[in-house]
Amino acid sequence: MSFGARYVAALAERGHLCAGIDPHAGLIQAWGLDDTPAGLERFALTAVEGLAPHVPLIKPQSAFYERHGSRGVAVLERVIAESRAAGALVLLDVKRGDIGSTSQAYADAYLDPASPLAADAVTVSPYLGFGSLQPFVDTATKHDAGLFVLAFTSNKEGAEVQHATAAGGGTIGGLMLDHLRQLDAGAAPLGSFGAVIGATIGAVHDPDAGLDYDFNGPILAPGYGAQGGTPDDLARIFGPAARHVAASSSRGLLQAGPSTTALRDAALAAREELAALA
């Protein structure tokens, strides 16, 4: 099955919540653990146990594992494997963007099943030019994997690039959606090439302003929960495309730990809150 097909099936079965497993030092310590590779492992695998059986997507942020060196990357490999074993798709949050052979090497690392870091999809940055993502596109297509391309992110600094006017009119972020629309054209039940569009981007990107988010691809919406984004925001921003949205929450879920029961309950409550997006 293509990633797009797996994504649609996962949302239908498990709702619209993407659970981020981002081992911030402060969160690790709040769970009563040391900010060491051993503490990281306990934290991350407990989060997998509590969350992965109940959500459609698990999204580990690679940097929080890499900061612990090779032992941290080994934990990330286990997070990917055990999340998938629990039935969740894994979206590896790496936000890579480069050119030529380097881009291909990143694609092989994260999308080729022969790699221990291979995930169902990865986040990528198109701001070296959308064409720089071609190795990712080709590799994802070859291995039935997916991409989530940064379009309109929730950080305030992103506006100076993403909201800027493109040469042909419209915004740079909107141009990224146009590229995705071409990649996903004709795919059923959904394309495999998605966008990252923040749940807190505000009315400037309201559908009434002329942006069409229904590009026949998945949408990752960070900013839900602890960052202030609500289900009403998601419905307002995305309109009919809300059915393709996975709302991402990390701290809002992880602060329920270290109890796996509390983590499960937090995930199920968020799933219920997001049910109207279906």
Automatic annotation (TrEMBL):
<comment type="pathway">
    <text>Pyrimidine metabolism; UMP biosynthesis via de novo pathway; UMP from orotate: step 2/2.</text>
</comment>
<dbReference type="InterPro" id="IPR013785">
    <property type="entry name" value="Aldolase_TIM"/>
</dbReference>
<dbReference type="InterPro" id="IPR001754">
    <property type="entry name" value="OMPdeCOase_dom"/>
</dbReference>
<dbReference type="Pfam" id="PF00215">
    <property type="entry name" value="OMPdecase"/>
</dbReference>
<keyword id="KW-0210">Decarboxylase</keyword>
<protein>
    <recommendedName>
        <fullName>Orotidine-5'-phosphate decarboxylase</fullName>
        <ecNumber>4.1.1.23</ecNumber>
    </recommendedName>
</protein>
<keyword id="KW-0665">Pyrimidine biosynthesis</keyword>
<feature type="domain" description="Orotidine 5'-phosphate decarboxylase">
    <location>
        <begin position="16"/>
        <end position="266"/>
    </location>
</feature>
<dbReference type="InterPro" id="IPR011995">
    <property type="entry name" value="OMPdecase_type-2"/>
</dbReference>
<keyword id="KW-0456">Lyase</keyword>
<comment type="similarity">
    <text>Belongs to the OMP decarboxylase family. Type 2 subfamily.</text>
</comment>
<dbReference type="InterPro" id="IPR011060">
    <property type="entry name" value="RibuloseP-bd_barrel"/>
</dbReference>
<dbReference type="GO" id="GO:0004590">
    <property type="term" value="F:orotidine-5'-phosphate decarboxylase activity"/>
</dbReference>
